[in-house]
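Note to self: the last two entries modelled the partners one at a time, which told us nothing about the interface. This time every component goes in together.
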Amino acid sequence: QSVLTQPPSASGTPGQRVAISCSGSSSNIGRNTVNWYQQLPGAAPKLLIYNNNQRPSGVPDRFSDSKSGTSASLAISGLQPEDEADYYCAAWDGSLSVVLFGGGTKLTVL
Amino acid sequence: QVQLVESGGGVVQPGGSLRLSCAASGFTFRTCAMHWVRQAPGKGLEWVAFIWFDGSNEYYADSVKGRFTISRDNSKDTAYLHMNSLRAEDTATYYCVRDPPYSGFAFDTWGQGTRVTVSS
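The predicted structure of the combined assembly is written out below.
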C-alpha cells in the first residue's frame, strides 16, 4: 500500500527553523486533513498538529503546519534540543479507504 | 484522565493467533472511532485497522485484510484486534488509538503499546 513521502532525516541547530515535507496525492492530502505526530525515543507517538494547524493542549506554538495541493509541511521554529524525535504525517485516503502514514523523519538537533 | 491500556501481546508461532485488547477509560468510549496502529522494530508507523464508533463499519490495511478483525464492546469500553494466520512480518508493537468525532482522523490518545512477536 502506498505511503505518504517524507524525507528520512532533517537537522538544525538550536534556535533555527526547520521544515519537514509530506507528499501525497489528490485522494489523501489533496482532499483531507493532514495530521502530524511526534515520537520521542522509546515513547508512544503523540499528536502534534491536526485539522489545519490546530495544536493539542500543551504543544507549543513553535510547531505549525501548512498545506498546498497534495503536499503538506511541518515547521518547527526556535528549535530546541527536546525537539529531537521522529515526526510522522498521516491522512485518510478516500480512494483506498485507509489511513496512510508517512515513512517518518528523524530530526536531529545539532 | 483519558487512557487506553493494551494487553494480550506475546510470542506466537507463525500461523498462530492472538487477541489484543484495549481498555478505555476517562472518556465516552461509544462516541469515538478506534484504530490499531503498529510499529515494527526500528521501523515507522503502519496503520492496521479502524472501527466506527458504533461498530457498524470496519476498514483494514491490505497487509492484514482477511487475517485480522477489529471489534469493540461499547458496554465494556473495550476494543479488540483478533489476529489470525500470523506471519513474521506482523512482529511489532501494536498501539490502540482514539479518533474523536469530527477530528479528521486525528489520533489524540495512544496506549502504551503491546508487543507481538511472531517466531518459531
